[in-house]
# Entry
Amino acid sequence: MYSYPELSRQQQESLPVLHAPALPLDTQFPDSTHQLWQCDSADGKMILKVCHQQRLQDSMFWLGINHLFQLDFPNSLGYTQFISQFLQREGGFATPEVIAEQAGHYVLVRYLEGVDLSAEFIDNTTVIQLAHHWGKLHLQISTKWGSIEKPIFSANDWPIRLEQTIQLLSDRNGIPIPADILKMSYGQCQTLSPEQFVPIMPDFRWDQLRQCDDGTIAVLDLDAFVRAPRELEWVLLEYLLSPQHAKLFVEIYTQYQPIPDLSACRLSYRVLLFLMNVLGESKLQQWLEQPPLFDLLSDNVS
# Structure
């Protein structure tokens, strides 16, 4: 009889019986906070994700997410099924079926046959599907922000907690941030007054998606979904789209609502995302000099 790695006998009692030893999978990034295994079970192929506590303690991303949104990861793993069902109901992408979950420890999901996406192979069809997905999710508006399942913060909390989080991360980060950049980002934080908060994925990358064999696109990593101003996700997207794909994205997204104005928040959000190391960038000046794609397009659609 085979066992699920890192799980106690009691935790495994209700899980599908394994037909073979679990196969460890390589993590895509050195700071990944999960250990992964592919499991061949009596109920089909599964993926087991177990939180790596040491990596979590060293993660600037999770320090930022937990402080800003009070997400309480990895205890928030206990809401994975809730988030999966929410995204399937309100968004445009598939999600893995959640077989089992335990707050603070692990998630077992059904394996989705397909190929992980990468930036080199993004085509117009993928961009269109992403725009529909975001467009639908961004219609799920709340006046509260925080976790998906129970947002507790009011709009007035956003600029305060954002500035505090940037301060915390800049103190912990190994890459020094020039004082003038921090001062400008703090000043910008203090002027922000978002009124609407929507589901976003602050760690979105193309490799978080899988092109499934049935033609659908699935979002694989559900850990960091939160409610936040949609502008934060748009600022991240400027690093992921070519100008041509950005134009196409805007054409589709504006079927749902106008694109947001990023000029008043871009610097503070870029500093936050850099400090959280969302895309692995280590050169601040290069990060801040990324072209403001959507400013160039907003005049054409307004």
